[in-house]
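Dear colleague,

Following up on Tuesday's group meeting, I ran the structure prediction for the two-component complex that the binding team flagged. I've pasted the input sequences exactly as they went in, so you can double-check that nothing got truncated or mislabelled along the way. The C-alpha coordinates for the whole assembly follow below. Feel free to forward this to whoever is handling the docking comparison.

Inputs:
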Amino acid sequence: EVQLVQSGAEVKKPGESLKISCKGSGYSFTSYWIGWVRQMPGKGLEWMGIIYPGDSDTRYSPSFQGQVTISADKSISTAYLQWSSLKASDTAMYYCARREGSGIWVWFDPWGQGTLVTVSS
Amino acid sequence: QSALTQPASVSGSPGQSITISCTGTSSDVGSYNLVSWYQQHPGKAPKLMIYEGSKRPSGVSNRFSGSKSGNTASLTISGLQAEDEADYYCCSYAGSSTFYVFGTGTKVTVL
Protein backbone atom coordinates (compact mmCIF):
# COMPACT_ATOMS: atom_id res chain seq x y z
CA GLU A 1 0.00 0.00 0.00
CA VAL A 2 1.31 3.41 -0.97
CA GLN A 3 1.41 5.56 2.14
CA LEU A 4 2.71 8.91 3.34
CA VAL A 5 3.07 9.27 7.10
CA GLN A 6 3.76 12.69 8.56
CA SER A 7 5.33 13.68 11.85
CA GLY A 8 3.21 14.71 14.80
CA ALA A 9 1.71 18.02 15.84
CA GLU A 10 4.05 20.79 16.92
CA VAL A 11 3.62 23.77 19.24
CA LYS A 12 6.27 26.44 18.83
CA LYS A 13 6.98 30.04 19.78
CA PRO A 14 7.48 32.85 17.27
CA GLY A 15 11.07 32.98 16.08
CA GLU A 16 11.75 29.30 16.67
CA SER A 17 12.80 26.91 13.91
CA LEU A 18 10.96 23.78 12.88
CA LYS A 19 11.33 20.84 10.51
CA ILE A 20 8.40 18.49 9.85
CA SER A 21 8.61 15.25 7.93
CA CYS A 22 6.74 13.05 5.49
CA LYS A 23 7.84 9.41 5.14
CA GLY A 24 6.86 7.46 2.04
CA SER A 25 6.40 3.71 1.87
CA GLY A 26 5.04 1.10 -0.52
CA TYR A 27 6.61 2.62 -3.64
CA SER A 28 9.89 3.84 -5.12
CA PHE A 29 10.33 7.07 -3.14
CA THR A 30 12.95 8.46 -5.52
CA SER A 31 10.68 8.18 -8.56
CA TYR A 32 7.85 10.51 -7.57
CA TRP A 33 7.66 14.20 -6.73
CA ILE A 34 6.38 15.07 -3.24
CA GLY A 35 4.41 18.29 -2.77
CA TRP A 36 3.54 20.31 0.33
CA VAL A 37 0.20 22.02 0.88
CA ARG A 38 -0.84 24.50 3.58
CA GLN A 39 -4.31 24.79 5.06
CA MET A 40 -4.77 27.63 7.50
CA PRO A 41 -7.54 27.29 10.11
CA GLY A 42 -10.92 27.29 8.41
CA LYS A 43 -9.38 28.09 5.03
CA GLY A 44 -8.64 26.39 1.73
CA LEU A 45 -5.69 24.51 0.30
CA GLU A 46 -2.57 26.38 -0.85
CA TRP A 47 0.19 24.76 -2.86
CA MET A 48 3.62 25.51 -1.35
CA GLY A 49 6.22 23.62 -3.32
CA ILE A 50 7.45 20.29 -4.55
CA ILE A 51 10.59 18.16 -4.51
CA TYR A 52 11.88 15.25 -6.55
CA PRO A 53 13.71 13.05 -4.02
CA GLY A 54 15.71 11.34 -6.77
CA ASP A 55 17.88 14.43 -7.31
CA SER A 56 16.38 16.95 -4.82
CA ASP A 57 15.15 19.20 -7.64
CA THR A 58 12.83 21.62 -5.82
CA ARG A 59 10.25 24.14 -7.02
CA TYR A 60 8.41 26.67 -4.90
CA SER A 61 5.19 28.59 -5.26
CA PRO A 62 6.08 32.29 -5.56
CA SER A 63 4.00 32.85 -2.41
CA PHE A 64 6.25 30.59 -0.36
CA GLN A 65 9.65 31.12 -1.99
CA GLY A 66 12.09 32.24 0.69
CA GLN A 67 9.61 31.52 3.48
CA VAL A 68 10.19 27.77 3.80
CA THR A 69 12.71 25.17 2.71
CA ILE A 70 11.77 21.83 1.22
CA SER A 71 14.28 18.99 1.31
CA ALA A 72 14.44 15.20 1.17
CA ASP A 73 16.61 12.34 2.43
CA LYS A 74 16.17 9.51 -0.05
CA SER A 75 18.10 7.10 2.14
CA ILE A 76 15.19 7.08 4.58
CA SER A 77 12.40 7.89 2.09
CA THR A 78 11.53 11.12 3.86
CA ALA A 79 10.69 14.62 2.67
CA TYR A 80 10.88 17.68 4.89
CA LEU A 81 9.38 21.12 5.25
CA GLN A 82 11.24 23.56 7.44
CA TRP A 83 11.12 27.07 8.80
CA SER A 84 14.06 29.03 10.20
CA SER A 85 11.97 31.57 12.09
CA LEU A 86 8.30 30.82 12.66
CA LYS A 87 5.58 33.45 12.75
CA ALA A 88 2.12 33.25 14.24
CA SER A 89 0.77 33.31 10.69
CA ASP A 90 2.47 29.96 10.03
CA THR A 91 -0.14 28.31 12.24
CA ALA A 92 -1.81 25.80 9.94
CA MET A 93 -2.22 22.19 8.96
CA TYR A 94 0.45 21.07 6.52
CA TYR A 95 -0.04 18.14 4.14
CA CYS A 96 2.39 16.29 1.95
CA ALA A 97 1.13 14.51 -1.16
CA ARG A 98 2.69 12.37 -3.87
CA ARG A 99 2.49 13.78 -7.37
CA GLU A 100 1.20 11.28 -9.91
CA GLY A 101 1.29 11.53 -13.69
CA SER A 102 3.97 13.20 -15.78
CA GLY A 103 4.71 16.46 -17.51
CA ILE A 104 1.78 18.80 -17.05
CA TRP A 105 -0.73 15.98 -16.62
CA VAL A 106 -0.38 15.57 -12.88
CA TRP A 107 -2.44 15.12 -9.76
CA PHE A 108 -1.79 14.46 -6.08
CA ASP A 109 -2.40 11.05 -4.54
CA PRO A 110 -2.09 9.85 -1.85
CA TRP A 111 -1.92 12.49 0.85
CA GLY A 112 -0.32 12.32 4.26
CA GLN A 113 -2.51 12.64 7.33
CA GLY A 114 -1.34 16.19 7.97
CA THR A 115 0.84 17.89 10.58
CA LEU A 116 -0.69 20.64 12.69
CA VAL A 117 1.74 23.45 13.44
CA THR A 118 0.73 25.95 16.12
CA VAL A 119 2.85 29.04 16.64
CA SER A 120 1.97 31.03 19.73
CA SER A 121 3.77 33.03 22.37
CA GLN B 1 -1.52 33.48 -9.67
CA SER B 2 -4.91 33.72 -7.98
CA ALA B 3 -6.83 30.73 -6.70
CA LEU B 4 -9.35 29.17 -9.04
CA THR B 5 -12.89 30.35 -8.31
CA GLN B 6 -15.42 27.94 -6.84
CA PRO B 7 -18.83 28.62 -5.29
CA ALA B 8 -18.58 28.78 -1.51
CA SER B 9 -21.41 26.32 -1.02
CA VAL B 10 -23.68 23.97 -2.92
CA SER B 11 -26.49 21.93 -1.44
CA GLY B 12 -28.87 19.23 -2.55
CA SER B 13 -31.25 16.60 -1.26
CA PRO B 14 -30.38 12.90 -1.14
CA GLY B 15 -30.64 11.37 -4.60
CA GLN B 16 -30.31 14.66 -6.43
CA SER B 17 -27.42 15.73 -8.64
CA ILE B 18 -25.26 18.75 -7.95
CA THR B 19 -22.50 20.42 -9.93
CA ILE B 20 -19.52 22.33 -8.56
CA SER B 21 -17.81 24.77 -10.91
CA CYS B 22 -14.14 25.72 -10.97
CA THR B 23 -13.34 28.81 -13.02
CA GLY B 24 -9.84 29.75 -14.05
CA THR B 25 -8.23 31.47 -16.98
CA SER B 26 -6.80 30.59 -20.36
CA SER B 27 -3.44 30.14 -18.58
CA ASP B 28 -4.59 27.27 -16.39
CA VAL B 29 -7.99 25.56 -16.64
CA GLY B 30 -8.62 26.82 -20.15
CA SER B 31 -5.34 25.61 -21.60
CA TYR B 32 -5.33 22.06 -20.38
CA ASN B 33 -7.78 19.35 -19.39
CA LEU B 34 -5.68 18.86 -16.30
CA VAL B 35 -8.02 19.63 -13.44
CA SER B 36 -8.08 17.26 -10.50
CA TRP B 37 -10.70 17.27 -7.77
CA TYR B 38 -10.30 16.49 -4.07
CA GLN B 39 -12.80 15.69 -1.33
CA GLN B 40 -12.03 16.69 2.24
CA HIS B 41 -14.13 15.64 5.19
CA PRO B 42 -13.75 17.68 8.41
CA GLY B 43 -10.50 16.91 10.17
CA LYS B 44 -9.32 14.61 7.39
CA ALA B 45 -6.76 14.80 4.62
CA PRO B 46 -7.92 15.53 1.07
CA LYS B 47 -8.75 12.55 -1.13
CA LEU B 48 -8.38 12.41 -4.91
CA MET B 49 -11.75 12.05 -6.66
CA ILE B 50 -11.07 13.00 -10.29
CA TYR B 51 -7.86 13.45 -12.29
CA GLU B 52 -7.06 14.64 -15.81
CA GLY B 53 -10.40 16.38 -15.88
CA SER B 54 -12.67 13.35 -16.01
CA LYS B 55 -10.91 10.18 -14.90
CA ARG B 56 -11.84 8.38 -11.67
CA PRO B 57 -9.25 6.61 -9.52
CA SER B 58 -9.93 3.05 -8.56
CA GLY B 59 -12.36 2.90 -5.66
CA VAL B 60 -14.09 6.23 -6.31
CA SER B 61 -17.80 5.91 -6.94
CA ASN B 62 -19.03 6.41 -10.51
CA ARG B 63 -21.48 8.93 -9.06
CA PHE B 64 -18.60 11.40 -9.35
CA SER B 65 -17.81 12.78 -12.80
CA GLY B 66 -15.73 15.63 -14.20
CA SER B 67 -15.95 17.79 -17.29
CA LYS B 68 -14.66 21.07 -18.75
CA SER B 69 -15.96 23.85 -20.92
CA GLY B 70 -13.73 26.77 -21.82
CA ASN B 71 -12.11 28.14 -18.68
CA THR B 72 -14.48 26.30 -16.33
CA ALA B 73 -14.14 22.76 -15.03
CA SER B 74 -17.00 21.03 -13.25
CA LEU B 75 -17.50 18.20 -10.78
CA THR B 76 -20.90 16.54 -10.79
CA ILE B 77 -22.12 14.33 -7.98
CA SER B 78 -25.16 12.30 -8.95
CA GLY B 79 -27.40 10.36 -6.56
CA LEU B 80 -26.24 12.58 -3.70
CA GLN B 81 -25.64 10.72 -0.43
CA ALA B 82 -25.09 11.86 3.14
CA GLU B 83 -21.45 10.70 2.98
CA ASP B 84 -20.82 13.17 0.13
CA GLU B 85 -21.14 16.08 2.57
CA ALA B 86 -17.62 17.53 2.58
CA ASP B 87 -15.45 20.28 1.14
CA TYR B 88 -14.34 19.92 -2.48
CA TYR B 89 -11.33 21.53 -4.14
CA CYS B 90 -10.23 21.68 -7.74
CA CYS B 91 -6.58 21.94 -8.74
CA SER B 92 -4.91 22.82 -12.02
CA TYR B 93 -1.45 23.12 -13.47
CA ALA B 94 -0.79 26.85 -13.84
CA GLY B 95 2.41 27.15 -15.82
CA SER B 96 6.12 26.89 -15.18
CA SER B 97 6.29 29.79 -12.70
CA THR B 98 3.41 29.00 -10.38
CA PHE B 99 3.13 25.28 -11.16
CA TYR B 100 -0.12 24.43 -9.39
CA VAL B 101 -3.13 26.32 -8.08
CA PHE B 102 -6.08 25.14 -5.98
CA GLY B 103 -9.64 26.35 -6.12
CA THR B 104 -11.20 28.35 -3.30
CA GLY B 105 -13.16 25.31 -2.13
CA THR B 106 -16.86 24.41 -2.04
CA LYS B 107 -18.79 23.11 0.94
CA VAL B 108 -21.35 20.54 -0.13
CA THR B 109 -24.33 20.13 2.17
CA VAL B 110 -26.77 17.26 1.91
CA LEU B 111 -30.14 18.55 3.06
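Chain A touches chain B through 25 residues (CB under 8 Å).

Cheers,
M.
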